[in-house]
Structure formats: structure tokens, C-alpha cells
Amino acid sequence: MIIKTAEFVKSSGKWQECPEPNIPEYAFIGRSNVGKSSLINAMMNHKDLAKTSQTPGKTQLINHFLVNENWYLTDLPGYGYAKVSKVQRKDFEKLITNYILNRRNLVNLFVLVDIRHTPQKIDLEFIQWCGESGIPFSIVFTKSDKLKPNVAIKNVEDYKAELHKTWEDLPELYVTSAEKKEGGDNILNFIQKTNEFLTNNNISFDE
């Protein structure tokens, strides 16, 4: 997929305030500081589209971007904030949960995982929740440039082994590096093929 246009549409504090759900939507989510904004910017070839920060939890609203004028890329707040109150954390979790369960044009959720770490309980629990809730999702490993290739491969295999304890079939897996702009093309190709499938089969999101 060639990115011709990518523009910010709006930030929403409630899922009901999101743009009209009339075109395919692909959302990105992960723990705070997983490199979500950096990956989005690399994929869109736009340095400042999604706001990056050294402070985990910078994204606190649902941010919509219109790509090529025919699909939405959605930047969701991270889960597992370390430096916010329990009340704020519950508010974020409610915002995320309601969006994921109610957004009828959400075609796929990309769950970002830091490849440098062993499988984290909070990631595994979120992935399990997605599966139990029937949410179509993929797993995206980030920051592969921070590891030697053989270590990165081992960490992915370890993650797959952990998932296989409860999953028979695994979702699509992508290994990415925002720094080196690697792996994003594979995600965009998946989005393009999915959009073509929706178009060819006259699938619409109108109620």
C-alpha cells in the first residue's frame, strides 16, 4: 500500500464521539511506552502524525487518522499505566473496552508487544480478553532493532510457545522496527488486502 494522504481527524474522550463508523477502521493498542506512536508515524511516513513522548501514557484519548481517504487508523490509549491513579486507570480501561466492543467498523485490532521482554502478564491477559470477546486482532512486535536478530527470533518463538498454552491457532504476527522502518509494509499490505476483500464483497458498516 502506498500512503498518499494521512491526516488527523479528531480526538475522542468517548467511543460515541468517534467519527461516523462508515469506513474500515484499524486500531493500534499496547502497553504504555511500547512504541505505538513511533510505529504509526513510520508506517504513515509522517514524522509527527501521532504524538510521541518520553512519558508513558501520553495518549489518553481515542485518536483517529484518515488514510488515503478511505480507511481510519486509530491510535488507542495504552493499557497498564504505571503513573496514574486507580480511578484514571479504570476510566482508560472503560474507554478502551467500550470502543473495542462497540465500534462496528473496527476490522482489526493490532496489539503491540515489546519484543525485548519475556511474555508479560498484562499483555497475555489482554490478548486472552480479545479472543474471548471475539475481537479480530493481530500481534505486532515492536523495537526489533534493539535486539540481535537471533535474540529477536527466540523471543518471538518464546511468545508463541506461551500463547500455544491456551491457543490452538495463533493470530497474525508481525515483527517491526519503527527506527529502521521495517515490518510496517507487511501490516499495510494486510490492511490493503482486507479493504479489497470488503469492497469486492460489498461489505458495508451502515446499520
TrEMBL record:
Coiled coil: none annotated. It comes from the Bacteria. The keyword Transcription regulation does not apply. GO terms for biological process: division septum assembly. Residues 22-197 form the EngB-type G domain. Keywords: Cell cycle, Cell division, GTP-binding, Magnesium, Metal-binding, Nucleotide-binding, Septation. InterPro entries: G_ENGB_dom (IPR030393), GTP-bd (IPR006073), GTP-bd_ribosome_bio_YsxC (IPR019987), P-loop_NTPase (IPR027417). Its cofactor is Mg(2+). GO terms for molecular function: GTP binding; metal ion binding. Necessary for normal cell division and for the maintenance of normal septation. Belongs to the TRAFAC class TrmE-Era-EngA-EngB-Septin-like GTPase superfamily. EngB GTPase family. This is Probable GTP-binding protein EngB. The lineage of its organism: Bacteria, Pseudomonadati, Bacteroidota, Flavobacteriia, Flavobacteriales.
